[in-house]
Write a structure and sequence with these properties.
The chain is α+β, with helices and mostly antiparallel strands. About 40% of the residues lie in helices and about 20% in strands.
Length: about 270
């Protein structure tokens, strides 16, 4: 059953009127209305989707504290569908300048981290990325992936107390909801708060290799996130480097190509071991 079919079936079960699906890759995500007119969102994936269960578990653990609220789950052998409260108006942070976007993003992350959420069953930590980095890719410099693997092991061995982190926090995953902001699309990773600086430091994608003053820009972005998250700048930067290295390996495996822009950014993010 396709994600769209899974989503349509769940919408019928929930008595929803589906709207036009959002453009996504691999999953079905669409706005919908309940019979009373309440705005909701249906998100669905086919059987074997590895992340929807983790997303549902994280959203349930936060209970609307910093993230969009999970209203229901429909799961069987054909696929999984999530019923989510709609963030209205739903504007994301991806078009905002760094000076505005990163403090807002960090404030959302702190709400998640301070929610007191227990670790959901099956919530991963970042140790699973060590073998990926050790294996690397012929399209990614081996010295970079080896350093990232070493640094990740160091981060894990010296980590602050773990909390339930978003795991894929960037501007497109933080939406305006009324007078505030909420996170969407979490991976639900168990780790220290600085972990959530990782993805944010290499998003949104930019022509990093061609940007003048890249080192200074990276320093500014690290500082904004570190202050907002309340974490040491060196650890925020280190998680950014590890996340960029993981992105390089994944990208090379998925596309069969290297990414010179992300590579340039990763080289700048690589700093002294915290």
């Amino acid at each position: 059953m396709t994600p769209a079919a899974v989503g349509a079936r769940a919408a019928a079960r929930w008595g929803l009127r589906l709207g036009r699906p959002f453009p996504t890759s691999g999953r079905f995500v669409a706005p919908a209305r309940r019979a009373d007119g309440t705005a909701v969102v249906v998100k669905a994936g086919a059987a074997g989707d590895p992340t929807l269960a983790g997303e549902a578990a994280a959203l349930a653990a936060w209970g609307g504290r910093g993230a969009v609220r999970l209203l229901d789950v429909a799961a069987d052998a054909e696929g999984t569908a999530l019923l989510l409260a709609a963030a209205v108006p739903g504007t994301d942070l991806s078009g905002f300048p760094d000076a505005d976007a990163l403090p807002l993003l960090a404030a959302v992350a702190r709400r998640l981290h301070r929610s007191g959420a227990a670790r959901p069953p099956g919530a991963p930590d970042s140790r699973r990325r060590v073998p990926l980095l050790r294996a690397g890719s012929p399209l990614v410099p081996a010295d970079l992936t080896a350093r990232a693997a070493d640094l990740l092991e160091h981060l894990l061995g010296t980590a602050a107390p773990a909390v339930l982190c978003h795991g894929d926090l960037h501007g497109a995953n933080v939406l305006r909801d009324g007078d505030g902001w909420v996170a969407v699309d979490p991976h639900g990773v168990w780790g220290e708060p600085a972990l959530d600086a990782g993805t944010a430091l290499h998003n949104p994608p930019r022509p990093w290799a061609a940007l003048p003053g890249l080192a200074g820009l990276v320093d500014e972005r690290v500082a904004l996130l570190a202050v907002g998250l309340g974490v040491p700048p060196d650890r925020a930067r280190a998680w950014g480097f590890v996340s960029a290295a993981v992105g390089l390996v994944w990208g090379a495996r998925d596309t069969g190509r290297g990414d010179p822009d992300l590579l340039a950014l990763a080289r700048v993010l690589a700093g002294p071991v915290p």
